[in-house]
Design goal:
This protein is mainly β. Helices cover 8% and strands 36% of the residues. The chain is built from one helix and 21 strands. The strands form five sheets. Strands 2, 3, 4, 6, 7 and 11 form a six-stranded mixed sheet that branches. Strand 13 and strand 14 form a beta hairpin. The longest helix is centred in the first third of the chain and has 19 residues.
Length: 248
């Protein structure tokens, strides 16, 4: 009788594992509660510091991020722009992960058109402007040590990394001297073609993720491609995970 019971437990365990091998469990993590909210912005105090991160809400057309903010009588410097996402805990059982689903859930911003960023902001989190469907202009203080902006997007201060491309249609011509298309740089855009300069050799993770209108990315020096970079696009020559293979 004991032998039969043990055998049943083993069989049941095997069945559960077999079933789990084709399942992906996603449990949403509750978003962190803001320490202060004002003028369409949420502020989060960095633990043990006199600095804060800011998150842009879907409330105002024109947003100006301040250099400092007063919270409960204390002055905090604004040094970071947070992503507008809730991260998911993804537990993959087996090899069949659902790559079609983004690793995070982003909320669309349909109101913000312009954003002014001060010199104090030294970190823009990946995905901070993902799915800002109406965003046309970002003005970054010229004294900002890490970032610069043009009419086409946000770049690293030295101009070598395209961090964010503003939404648009037709062809997007990446400015000269750019060496890398940053992670999630084009997510949510509607361009059909992207032209890269000879200096550009790298495309970051999910750079063009689910850009359903995109048919062609033209560049002479590409040799590095991040995971899921072209997933959900119409670009030819990519594998089922949206990664492009290059002959070096």
């Amino acid at each position: 009788m004991k032998y039969i019971s043990k055998l049943c437990i083993i069989i049941a365990t095997f069945c559960i594992c077999l079933l789990g091998s084709s399942m992906t469990s996603n449990a949403a993590v509750m978003p962190q509660e803001a320490d202060y909210t004002a003028a369409g912005l949420k502020f989060y105090i960095h633990s043990g510091q006199q600095t804060v991160a800011v998150q842009i809400q879907n409330k105002k057309a024109n947003v100006r991020i301040p250099e400092t903010v007063q919270i409960q009588g204390k002055t905090y410097m604004v040094t970071e722009i947070k992503s507008t996402a809730i991260k998911h805990d993804t537990v993959v059982m087996g090899k069949k992960a659902k790559v079609a689903r983004d690793d995070k859930e982003y909320f669309k911003n349909t109101k913000t058109r312009t954003v002014a960023i001060p010199k104090t902001v030294t970190k823009i989190e990946t995905g901070a402007f993902s799915y800002f469907t109406k965003l046309k202009k970002v003005v970054i203080d010229k004294e900002n040590p890490n970032y610069m902006s043009t009419s086409k997007g946000i770049f690293s201060k030295d101009g070598k990394i395209l961090i964010l491309a503003f939404n648009g249609t037709g062809t997007y011509k990446v400015r000269d001297n750019v060496e890398k298309i940053g992670d999630r740089a084009f997510v949510g855009t509607k361009y059909s073609k992207v032209s890269l300069p000879d200096s550009c050799y790298e495309i970051g993770t999910r750079a063009f993720f689910k850009c359903s209108k995109l048919k062609q990315v033209k560049g002479q020096s590409l040799c590095v491609c991040g995971k899921y970079a072209f997933f959900g696009t119409k670009v030819k020559g990519v594998d089922k995970y949206g990664t492009m293979r290059f002959k070096i």
